[in-house]
C-alpha cells in the first residue's frame, strides 16, 4: 500500500439494503473469527466505500508510479538493466490491473475511478511526485519505495476483504523482486567509481525522508486508523510500520556502504529498535495538496495517456461485445 492513510473511512450511511449489515451479526462474527469478506457477502456500506477508496488510491499509485521509472527505460545503462526495468514497470501496470479489478468486485466502475483520478478527486501516493534525476534514482526507488510498499502490503495479505488480500499476495512477490533490483543497482554504483558512489548516495539522500512519509502521518495524527483496524483492513499502525521499515533498512544501507541522511539514527538497545530524527510532515502535506515537484507533470502525462488510449478501449469493448453476442445474432453488435 502506498500511503493509505490520507483518505478517511467513509462514515456516511446511505439508506439501502446494506444498511442492516452495519449491525449484521454475521459480518461482525466473520471479522472476529478472522474470516474473509467476499464480494457477495453483506457488509456495512461504510466498510465497502472505505475499501473502494483505499483500493482505488492504491491502484492509482501503481499506474502513476510507472512514470518516474519509465522516464529511464530509454536511458538505462545496459540492455540487461533496460530489460529488467521494463519488466518492473510492466509489473506496476499489472498491479494496477489487479487492484482496479478488486475495486470492481465492490461495485465500483473502473472508468469512474479513473475519472476521479484525472479530476483530482482521488489521490495517489505523493512519493511519485518526486523527480528521477539520475539513474541511481531508479535504484533508490526500487530499494526504498518498493521496500516501504512491501512493508505496508505484507499485512494487507491478511486484509479482511478477500479479493484485496489475494491480490496482495502476488503483488508482494513481485515487489520483493523490485526491491532487490533496486538494491542491486545501488550496490553496483556504490562499488563503482567515486562519481557513481556519489550518485548513489545523492539518490538515497533525496529519497530517504519521502519514503518514510509513505507510511502516512504519525499515529497521533491519524484518526482513521482505528476504524480500519477494527474492520481488519489495517493490521498495524503507521508508526509501527514505519519503524519496521527503518529497522529493516538500516542494516541494508550498511551492506550497501551508503549512509542514511539522518544523524539521529541509532540503535536503541532498550527499545530494540532504531531511533530516528523528526520527520518534516509539512513537506508531505504540501505535496499532497498538489505542490510537489512533479504533481502537474504526472497528472498531465496520465490524462494524455488516457486520451491517447481511447481507441484501444473502444476496440476492446467492441471486441468483447462481438464475442458476447449469441451465435447467429448477426450484424450490429459492435
Ligand atoms: Fe507495485
Ligand atoms: Fe513495485
Briefly characterize the structure:
With 334 residues, the chain is an all-alpha fold. The chain has helices at 25-32, 45-64, 66-70, 79-104, 110-118, 135-153, 162-190, 194-213, 225-230, 238-256, 281-291, 295-308, 310-324; strands spanning 266-268, 273-275. It contains 13 helices and two strands; from the N terminus they run H-H-H-H-H-H-H-H-H-H-E-E-H-H-H.
Strands, helices and their partners?
Elements: H1 25-32, H2 45-64, H3 66-70, H4 79-104, H5 110-118, H6 135-153, H7 162-190, H8 194-213, H9 225-230, H10 238-256, E1 266-268, E2 273-275, H11 281-291, H12 295-308, H13 310-324
Antiparallel strand pairs: 1-2
The structure holds fe (ii) ion (FE2) (2 copies).
Give structural notes.
This protein is mainly α. The chain is 60% helix and 2% strand. It is built from 13 helices and two strands, in the order H-H-H-H-H-H-H-H-H-H-E-E-H-H-H. The chain has helices at residues 25-32, 45-64, 66-70, 79-104, 110-118, 135-153, 162-190, 194-213, 225-230, 238-256, 281-291, 295-308, 310-324, and strands spanning 266-268, 273-275. It has a two-stranded antiparallel ribbon with strand order 1-2. Strand 1 (266-268) and strand 2 (273-275) form a beta hairpin. Helix 6 (135-153) runs antiparallel to helix 7 (162-190), helix 6 (135-153) runs parallel beside helix 8 (194-213) and helix 6 crosses helix 10. The longest helix has 29 residues, at 162-190. 38% of the residues are buried. Residues 3-20 have low confidence and may be disordered. One fe (ii) ion is lined by residues 92, 146, 149, 175, 178. Residues 62, 92, 95, 171, 175 line the site of one fe (ii) ion.
